Amino acid sequence: MKRDALEEALGHRFANPALLAQALTHRSHSSPHNERLEFLGDSVLNFVVAAELYGRFPGLEEGRLTRLRASLVREESLHGVALRLALGDHLRLGKGALKSGDFRRASVLADALEAVFGAVFLDGGYDAVRATIVRLFEPLLASLDPAAVTKDAKTRLQEWLQGHRYALPQYAVVATHGAGHNQQFEVECVISELDIRTVGTGASRRTAEQDAARQAYARVEP
To answer: What's the pLDDT score for residue 146?
Structure first.
């Protein structure tokens, strides 16, 4: 599989090509697959975007910075970046996942993109992954309007809790259903101080978290 074009689009040449191969390997194909790299890449992406927004919008309050970050790291935005990279053409998936068209699924592509960021971080360090993320997200960063960004459920819940001086909610995957290429996630949202526990479902961890947050927010702010 040719990956020169992908590395050129990323702006990073891998010293260890095995990291990129793992980032592009879905769990339905073989092991090692990309889920651990996705975990790492998710955290790296959030940090890089937060730092970039902090520098680009001096004086903007925490609440709006949080909403801007959420608008950039949500599944829809990641899916769009992955499509521009033609990332689906490079993924390694099992036969069942290929038949199901998982190389086109938003959640699969978004997760793979995060895994790629995790791989770039391990291969080249922070400066390399920052350059890659800023390069890919520049069109989105340039078009941001802090006044126009709407709040998603997780952001609304977080801001309500912070405003009332409660600890932030804890999210955890409690169950998965279905085959590896067609999973449904169950994620719980726990607010211990208010004795609230909700469980959301979705085709990805992110959508399940949003569903759980929507339910929790309805409990605290009817």
So the answer is: 84
Burial (CB count within 10 angstroms: exposed 0-12, middle 13-18, buried 19+), residue 84: exposed
pTM greater than the 0.85 cutoff: no
The 10s digit of each residue's pLDDT in 34-82 is 999 999 999 999 999 999 999 999 989 888 898 899 889 988 899 999 9
- Three-state secondary structure string covering the chain: CCCHHHHHHHCCCCCCHHHHHHHCECCCCCCCCCHHHHHHHHHHHHHHHHHHHHHHCCCCCHHHHHHHHHHHHCHHHHHHHHHHCCHHHCCECCHHHHHCCHHHCHHHHHHHHHHHHHHHHHHHCHHHHHHHHHHHHHHHHHCCCCCCCCCCHHHHHHHHHHHCCCCCCEEEEEEEECCCCCCEEEEEEEEHHHCEEEEEEECCHHHHHHHHHHHHHHHHCC
* Catalytic positions: 42, 114
153-220 topology per CATH: Double Stranded RNA Binding Domain (3.30.160)
CATH code of the region 4-142: 1.10.1520.10
Quick one: pLDDT at residue 1?
47
CA distance 25 to 5: 18
Q: Cα 101 to chain center, whole Å?
A: 20
Question: Among candidates 108, 145, 114, 146, which has minimal Cα distance to 47?
Answer: 114
Within 8 A by CB and 6+ apart from 208, the residues are 173, 185, 186, 187, 200, 201, 202
